[in-house]
Structures are given as structure tokens and as C-alpha cells.
Amino acid sequence: MKGLLTVVGLGPGDPRYLTPAASEALASATDLVGYGPYVDRVPERPGQRRHSSDNRVELDRARFAFDLAAKGAHVAVVSGGDPGVFAMAAAVFEAVESGDPEWRSLDIRIEPGITAMLAAAARVGAPLGGDFCAMSLSDNLKPWEVVEARLRAALTADFVVALYNPISSARPWQLGAAFEIVSEMRGPDTPVILARAVMRPDERIRILPLSEVEDSMADMSTIVIIGATTTRQIERPGGAAPYVYTPRFYGVRP
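C-alpha cells predicted for Precorrin-3B C(17)-methyltransferase:
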């Protein structure tokens, strides 16, 4: 039996948004490997082995998965959202580069999923309709000075900015520091979207002007999208939340 390792994106949480290809990979796997809450999202199947681990052992998890695949297992490494966006796919290839040379001969596949910024954008309109960038505010794997420099560069270039991993109990100050930088470079009426647990039962989405945003409004389940100077709101009647979109054209429409 030839081993196979597939990194599977589970999407934002609602099983309706899991791709058919990802579902097939999960169904055919002999072993599931992943962060505990993500493994728990996959329905149990008879005979399928499940290997859960903590959130901060991504490289160890990838190596464990390769050991299983090298012995002939068909392994699905599960990841929330899209595995290539601040998630397990990069850890898998880091393990390949630094690990057993025989792992390079294994069949490695990536099954994409809907990442948080796309799910959040779909809920409110089209805030990513123009140029945008995505950043992680976590300084666990890179210095805060790098995070700050990249954020300033993105704001200077007038991108819409999507912030992943905005805040946690172990990192309580970074989001506030990021908003201070944003306030220096964006107007107080800039739309900010705080989308928590998108497409899950406890979903909560707020659209606020930058001047009213507080870092206590977010947690690790929140994606924060900061509008560009061109991002617009369309007010709606009856107290409904506004639509938010960023035009594809920049400046004066041709």
C-alpha cells in the first residue's frame, strides 16, 4: 500500500462549504491528524484512526503524519479554512524540506478550503473587491517589528487589510497596537469588519467605523478586515446592516 498525505481545508465551519474533493479525501483516509477542534469537526468513520494534538505543535504534527504515510497509511491532515493560508500546508512542506529524504517520494496533495477572510467578505458584500492583502498579527513565528513594518507598508499602499490571529490571551496587546498604526494612516470613518466564528452557529459580525473599534471586540476566532480609502458602505433600510464593498476601479471611474 503506497502512502498518501493530503492536507485538507475544512472551510469556515459550516459543512455545506466543505468542497466535494475535501470530503472525498476525508472519507478515504485511514488516519486523521490535526488540531483537536478541527479533528472533532470531521464525522467519525468505522476503522478510521484519529490523532488529535495541541495547536502549537504544527511541525511535530506534520512529521507524525509523514511517519504514518511512510508506513503506507492514507493520511488526511485537517486544517481550518484553507490549509495554505497561515495553516498546516506550510508546516507540511517545512517538514518535507528538513525531514527524512524518503518523504519527498510520497504523494502529497493539498485540498483547498474557504479561508476566513473570504467567508467574512461574503457575509457583508465585497470588501475585497479591490486590491487587498492578508496578514497574521501573531508574533509567535516572526518578530513584531516585521509585523508592524508590513502593516505600515500595506496601509501606505492603500490595500484593504485582512488581519488573521488578531489577539489571544497570550498576545493581548498586538491588536491594540495595530489599530493605533491604522488610526495614524486611515480616517476615523474607515469601515472595519469584525467577523467572529463566520458560518458557525455562534457567528457574530460587526461593521464599525475605525473610531469606534476596540481591541476587546475580537478574539482568535475573529477575522478583522480594514477598509481602504476607496471602501464604501451602502446603507440599507429597516436597521439592516450596510453592504460594504471596495470598487475595482481606483480614483475616478474610467
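The first strand starts at residue 4 and ends at 9.
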